[in-house]
Specification:
This protein is α+β, with helices and mostly antiparallel strands and about 140 residues long. It contains 3 helices and 4 strands. It has one domain. The longest helix is centred in the C-terminal third of the chain and has 36 residues. The chain starts with a helix and ends with a helix.
């Protein structure tokens, strides 16, 4: 029965990680055309996931996930020629945030599907636990 609780924890870690990913994508989309207070373009955020592998966990086949960090992307900013823009440089180019809406939407769909997969694993584990308890009655 304790193994079922481990499965709950692993599924929950996956749901938490995907919820963070979804929030990061939403932030990126919201700031698609934003600038920081220092005048620099918004830099896309990226969550970094990490498998929580310990020797003991690996022996049991239990490897939850954690969000290691949320970092700024090192992708270059988009450049657009618009000499009339007040943010244009001497050559007339404006630096825009490095957020690509199509990629963000695809990432949002992927996060949603991953969250749903972890939720289904959680539900299946719950059903197994309920059936086990029914056998003990």
């Amino acid at each position: 029965m304790r193994d079922l609780f481990n499965a709950f924890n692993i599924s929950a870690s996956g749901m938490y990680a995907q919820r963070i990913r979804f929030n990061v994508v939403a932030s990126n989309i919201a700031n698609f055309e934003s600038y920081r207070t220092n005048g620099q373009p918004f830099s896309k955020l990226e969550p970094v996931f990490e498998a929580v592998e310990t020797e003991e966990n690996l022996k049991k086949g239990l490897v939850p996930v954690s969000v290691r960090e949320i970092r700024e992307s090192n992708e270059p900013f988009r450049l657009v020629f618009d000499p009339t823009n007040p943010r244009a440089d001497a050559q007339g180019f404006v630096r825009l945030p490095n957020v690509e809406l199509v990629k963000e939407m695809a990432d949002m769909i992927s996060a949603m599907r991953s969250y749903e997969a972890n939720l289904n694993a959680f539900r299946t584990t719950r059903e197994m636990a309920q059936r086990t308890l029914e056998l003990w009655r």
